[in-house]
Write a structure and sequence with these properties.
Blueprint lengths: L10 E3 L9 E11 L6 E11 L3 E3 L1 H9 L8 H16 L3 E11 L2 E10 L13
Antiparallel strand pairs: 1-4, 2-3, 3-5, 5-6
């Protein structure tokens, strides 16, 4: 049977829990439906996170993103829902999702949502010569 869309996010153990490092994932083919018109909305999702104990498994993430294809959702709502689902599955130290929606009606929309674990602070940025 072919793979089906699913909201089940699978994880795996972070291979280096002692170090803060950033995982960046770009998802260029996100699709959902406009809840007002039913027309498709297309976006590129940029996911950035500092894992704690768990990392997201990429095939499961792809199938999760696919589950939105036939769902009506405002840009702001779907971006925050994805962040909430990922935070629930991963409990990251930090996570940011940037959703850059393609033009609709002459307007581009970008929605950025963030999560920061209680007490976590980013390391100071190092600038090399």
């Amino acid at each position: 049977m072919p793979t089906q869309p699913s909201r089940q996010l699978e994880t795996f153990d972070n291979p280096d829990t002692q170090r803060d490092y950033t995982i960046r994932i770009e998802i260029p083919e996100f699709t959902c439906l406009c809840p007002k018109t039913g027309q498709p909305d297309f976006a590129t999702l940029q996911l950035e996170y500092v894992p704690a104990a768990k990392c997201v498994e990429l095939k499961a993430l792809k199938i999760y993103v696919w589950s939105y294809r036939d769902q009506g959702a405002f840009h702001e709502a779907v971006t925050n829902r994805i962040l909430d689902d990922l935070v629930t599955a991963l409990h990251p130290r930090f996570m940011r999702i940037t959703a850059r929606f393609n033009v609709r009606g002459g307007i581009y929309t970008t929605v950025v949502a963030e999560h920061r674990a209680h007490g976590w602070q980013a390391a100071e940025l190092v600038t090399l010569p």
